Backbone:
């Protein structure tokens, strides 16, 4: 064929297909472990009223309960460091130091001056 595309025979097509399958298998993972999404609310239904199985015979799987409790925890208890920038504010919060009433830098009590006493006096008189 002059200038056009050459048709590929079955051997070449099969080789291309085999190569594609090998690439797919290289990046393919088989997931056999499934669990319930802990971020989604589920509605637990009780057993049927005529069920003969005692509740003690059913085995408990605590992985879902632990995952649910972890989701509901505060971020400070879940993670060692803040994940987002908005979590950085207040992440390492500690209690304020004890309030010292004698320190004039931090304590601003109300003081009476001549002007404030005059205003209080006029207010009491009803002027």
Residues:
């Amino acid at each position: 064929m002059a200038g056009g595309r050459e048709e590929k025979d079955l051997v070449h097509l099969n080789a291309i297909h085999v190569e594609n399958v090998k690439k797919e298998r290289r990046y393919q993972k088989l997931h056999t472990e499934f669990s319930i999404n802990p971020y989604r609310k589920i509605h637990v239904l009780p057993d049927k009223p005529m069920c003969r199985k005692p509740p003690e015979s059913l085995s408990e799987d605590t992985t879902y309960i632990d995952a649910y409790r972890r989701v509901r925890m505060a971020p400070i208890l879940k993670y060692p460091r803040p994940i987002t920038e908005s979590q950085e504010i207040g992440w390492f919060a500690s209690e304020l130091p004890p309030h010292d009433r004698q320190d004039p830098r931090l304590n601003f009590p109300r003081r009476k001056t001549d002007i404030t006493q005059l205003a209080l006096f006029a207010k009491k008189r009803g002027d």
Observations:
- Residues 2 and 8 are 15 Å apart (CA to CA).
- Residues 10-27 form the longest helix (18 residues).
- The helical segments are 10-27, 62-72, 75-78, 85-88, 114-125.
